[in-house]
Design goal:
CATH architecture: Alpha-Beta Complex
CATH class: Alpha Beta
Structural class: alpha/beta
Distance between the termini: 52 Å
Radius of gyration: 20 Å
Largest sheet: 7 strands, mixed
Order of helices and strands: EHEHEHEEHEHEHHHEEHEHHH
Number of helices: 12
Number of domains: 1
Length: about 300
Amino acid sequence: MNLKNKRTINLIPIIVTIDENYAQHLGVMLTSLFENNKELKFHIFVFSEIISVDSQNKLLHVAQHYHQEISFQTVSTKSIKDFKIHAHASLANYFRLLAFSQLPPEINKVLYLDVDLLVLKSINKLWNIDLDDKLLAAVPDQVGVHHNERLEIPTQYPYFNSGVMLVNIDLWKTEDMSKKTLDFIEKNPDKIHYWDQDALNAICYDKCLFLEDKWNTMSANFGESEDNNKIYQSATILHFTGMSKPWQYINKHSYKKEYYKYIKKTPWKDYKPEDKTIGNFLRKYNLMPKWYDVIGKQ
């Protein structure tokens, strides 16, 4: 589909960035968004380097089922091919830094969403937040208090999570923020631990409007306490942060069942976790006999 769709200006633009491995999870996230925002109309801009025709067709099916718009745009990785990636990250983590500059000129504000999250309620109030002279709006990261010194961010500014961001596209383009953030990553490889999120914080810390936790309720909010249900009930966006994800069998997140609730409404409804093995069953429920791992390594 052509990005320059005449209807775009009448829809809420959402940017997502993925690689082929995350197409299924995007389908689940979009289903939760559409299911819980039936009064709103969206244009989903999917930025990726390579995504299969099969995955595109499945995502189109999800969007069309809810009468929503979706477009696919190819990202060139030439300028980021040497950037640091590790753990569960991929080059797709950096795509949004490029994507914000590639939107149609009629779009002056956009909502960015990670794909490892679920939208549980209406985001209309989030979309209508006035950014005024701020570059973006985001939620402080629950585990980000130790990053200010590493990134030379004054202590009065919280380190924010970039998984949910309302972005002032006019200001982003005017200040050439794609170049500034990419330059920071290239010149400071030793400071980069959390990929593009670190660059966004290092460059935008004083240009951020800080939001309530409910707009990006992260896994770090949840523990073994009785407060879990209260936290869940207040969440509008539930974000599965960290390396352990709800689609993994071994994952024990309090609300991973929500992921499977929405996947049943997608073309990936028959998904079975690849890590669902006898060994992981025993590990998950603390039934692993001491000899099991020893034998398994022989």
